[in-house]
Amino acid sequence: MADRDQNTRDTPEELCAKARKLWLNDPRQLDRVEEMYRTALLATKKVRQRSNKFRRIQALAKPDYRAAGEKMALILCQSGRSSRAKDGLAALGFNCRLADCALNYPMSEKEASQLAGTDTQHSPCLIYDNFLSPDELLKLRQIFQNPKASYWRDHNYRVEPPSPYFSYVYHLRKDSTKTFLGSLARRIQRHCRNAFPEIRRAKYVELWAHCRPHATGHQLHMRKA
Question: What's the whole-model pTM score?
Answer without folding.
Answer: 0.56
